[in-house]
Each structure stands twice: as C-alpha cells, then as structure tokens.
Amino acid sequence: xxxxxxxxxxxxxxxxxxxxxxxxxxxxxxxxxxxxxxxxxxxxxxxxxxxxxxxxxxxxxxxxxxxxxxxxxxxxxxxxxxxxxxxxxxxxxxxxxxxxxxxxxxxxxxxxxxxxxxxxxxxxxx
Length: 126
Known about the structure:
Low-confidence stretches: none
Number of helices: 4
Oligomer: single chain
Radius of gyration: 46 Å
Structural class: mainly alpha
Helix content: 40-55%
Strand order of the largest sheet: 1-2
C-alpha cells in the first residue's frame, strides 16, 4: 500500500479525469438555455412585428414637437404701482366706511375703528 502511495506523491499532475457525465450535462444545459433564449427573443420579435404598421410608418411617440410655436406670453401689468394703489384705495374704502354687505339679510359693515370700539366695550354698556 505504501508503494502505491509513493507513486502518487511523485506525480506532478492531476491523475483524475474530468467527470464526463457532469461535463456533458453542463454542456447540454448551456445549449438548451441558449436555444430557449433565442426562441423567446424570436417570439417577442414576432409579437412586435405583428403589432407594427410597417417600416415606413413613424410611431406617434417619435414625432418631433413643433418647436417654432411660442408659449403664451406672461400677463404683465402695464402699471403695477397704479393697480396696487387702486386696490388699496378700494380696501381702505371698505374698511373705513359704513355700507351694506347683504341688504336683503340685513347685514351691514361698519368702519374697522368703530368695530374695535364696539368689541372692546363691556357687554352691558352698548
């Protein structure tokens, strides 16, 4: 037994062969995977080819938008300070004068200064 052991120690290469059934199964598996992959790719190609209108028809998603059309212009005020002054004048008129908010319901407005006076008065002295 030692003689056999000594002979294997003297060799400087691998003495075992490749496992032929394992190599064969691996090779055929890779070939099968490639064939299935090509079949799936061909099937997807056929699906897309059957849905297309033809080689000369451009899909709607590939149309180029009209870049010559300009967007709508901004709504700029010609004189913003005059518009602001007019707005403040209307607000001041509402805050500082008497008037009807809804005359049908009897709701009126009073000047803000008078409203604050009425609000601060004790309940019994109105």
